[in-house]
Automatic annotation (TrEMBL):
<keyword id="KW-0732">Signal</keyword>
<dbReference type="InterPro" id="IPR058626">
    <property type="entry name" value="MdtA-like_b-barrel"/>
</dbReference>
<dbReference type="GO" id="GO:0046677">
    <property type="term" value="P:response to antibiotic"/>
</dbReference>
<dbReference type="Pfam" id="PF25876">
    <property type="entry name" value="HH_MFP_RND"/>
</dbReference>
<protein>
    <submittedName>
        <fullName>Efflux RND transporter periplasmic adaptor subunit</fullName>
    </submittedName>
</protein>
<dbReference type="InterPro" id="IPR058624">
    <property type="entry name" value="MdtA-like_HH"/>
</dbReference>
<dbReference type="InterPro" id="IPR058627">
    <property type="entry name" value="MdtA-like_C"/>
</dbReference>
<dbReference type="GO" id="GO:0005886">
    <property type="term" value="C:plasma membrane"/>
</dbReference>
<dbReference type="Pfam" id="PF25917">
    <property type="entry name" value="BSH_RND"/>
</dbReference>
<dbReference type="Pfam" id="PF25967">
    <property type="entry name" value="RND-MFP_C"/>
</dbReference>
<dbReference type="Pfam" id="PF25944">
    <property type="entry name" value="Beta-barrel_RND"/>
</dbReference>
<feature type="domain" description="Multidrug resistance protein MdtA-like beta-barrel">
    <location>
        <begin position="200"/>
        <end position="288"/>
    </location>
</feature>
<feature type="domain" description="Multidrug resistance protein MdtA-like barrel-sandwich hybrid">
    <location>
        <begin position="55"/>
        <end position="192"/>
    </location>
</feature>
<dbReference type="GO" id="GO:0030313">
    <property type="term" value="C:cell envelope"/>
</dbReference>
<feature type="domain" description="Multidrug resistance protein MdtA-like alpha-helical hairpin">
    <location>
        <begin position="96"/>
        <end position="164"/>
    </location>
</feature>
<comment type="similarity">
    <text>Belongs to the membrane fusion protein (MFP) (TC 8.A.1) family.</text>
</comment>
<dbReference type="GO" id="GO:0022857">
    <property type="term" value="F:transmembrane transporter activity"/>
</dbReference>
């Protein structure tokens, strides 16, 4: 009987959970570490839209009939490359008429000069009245004015003939043709095609008032370029790219905030030598905001509830308490905490599922280092 009782006692001892001296369950273990404090380069990310650095609507500067189209739809063209040719025969006739008018006025001017030369000695010797000399001089000035007008008309006719060949005003990519050979086009009205400049290219985004004020306080002029201040650096990645491999610089910030959205429009210039960046597409842009001291924790240590983001900290007596935090960007695998944490706070980075606010835990010291960290469970 005593042996059975002893076996029962031994079995009960083996199956019972470990207890403290007070009879309460042992506190679950968690891994804690103080936030990593270091200087970090601050980048703010925005959704951006890619736009051409120039957009030109190609319209004719003279009216006429399209005789030939010299480009393929969507082709890359050089500055001055021929795009359309209008019927040049009416313009060539106008040039010939203008040249004939110049020759006629040159002949009239020559005659007027000869008349003045003949009458000058006659008037000096009083063989001809002074009024006749005035008439000859007036005819000379008329001839000079007529020749100048004829030459101006010739320049205009030659310019119209030149405008009958419609050329690309700058390098870029043309859209599809809007007219074909045989169509009549109207001066300054008919849209022939459009041309966009792709290198460099613009990237536009909207920044909130909070972000703009942060830039304005950090640097003179904010996102704008000030005297003696270098351009603000931006980095770009397309939606299917894993990292920010393209770099550019801020080019323009709007003069005021949009009253409806409370944002201000910014624009960066990004080199596009391979012409891969296409106008109208979206990208992720991050804007360099300078270097500043920051506290950093692993992204896995951050929790979310209805009030926002928070981390769990452990006090000296082992009590778990939540801290609401304001987060910044992800840097080297760690999340920047802008506010809500102190450098001496012990943040739970491992065993987070075993901790509850207000509960007691057993804190095991860990360490937060740069790069992704595998927290112990």
């Amino acid at each position: 009987m005593q042996g059975a009782t002893a076996l029962a006692l031994l079995a009960g001892t083996a199956l019972a959970p470990p207890v403290r001296a007070q009879g309460t369950p042992a506190a679950p273990p968690v891994t804690v570490a103080t936030p990593l404090a270091r200087q970090v380069a601050e980048w703010n990310e925005h959704t951006a839209r890619i736009e051409p650095s120039a957009r030109v609507e190609i319209r004719p500067r003279v009216s006429g009939q399209v005789m030939q189209v010299h480009f393929q739809d969507g082709a890359l063209v050089r500055a001055g490359e021929l795009l359309f040719t209008l019927d040049q025969r009416p313009f060539q006739i106008a040039v010939e008429n203008a040249r004939a008018e110049v020759a006629r006025n040159e002949a009239r001017l020559t005659l007027a000069e000869q008349q003045v030369q003949r009458y000058t000695p006659l008037v000096q010797q009083r063989f001809a009245p002074e009024s006749e000399m005035d008439t000859r001089r007036s005819a000379l000035r008329e001839g000079q004015a007529g020749l100048a007008a004829a030459r101006a008309a010739l320049h205009q006719a030659e310019l119209d003939l030149e405008f009958s060949e419609i050329r690309a005003p700058r390098p870029g990519r043309v859209s599809d043709r809007r007219v074909d050979a045989g169509n009549l086009v109207q001066q300054g009205t008919t849209l022939l095609t459009t041309l966009v400049a792709l290198d460099p290219i613009y990237v536009s985004f909207d920044a909130s008032e909070t972000e703009y004020l942060r830039y304005a306080r950090a640097t003179r002029g904010g996102m704008r370029r000030g005297a003696g201040q270098a351009d603000t650096v931006v980095q770009l990645r397309l939606l299917d790219e894993p990292d920010f491999r393209r770099e550019g610089r801020m080019d323009f910030v709007d003069s005021g905030f949009d009253a409806r959205s409370g944002t201000i429009r910014g624009r960066a210039v990004v080199p596009n030598p391979d012409l891969f960046l296409t106008p109208g597409s979206f990208a992720r842009l991050r804007l360099f905001a300078g270097e500043a001291p920051a506290l950093m924790v692993p992204d896995a240590a951050i929790m979310a509830d209805q009030s926002g983001r928070m981390v769990l900290t452990v006090a000296s007596d082992g009590t778990v308490s939540p801290r609401t935090v304001l987060l910044g960007p992800l840097v080297d695998g760690l999340r920047v905490v802008r506010s809500g944490l102190a450098p001496e706070d012990r943040v739970i980075i491992g065993g987070l599922h075993r901790a509850r606010p207000g509960a007691h835990v057993t804190a095991e010291l860990g360490r937060i280092g740069p790069g992704p960290m595998a927290a112990a469970d």
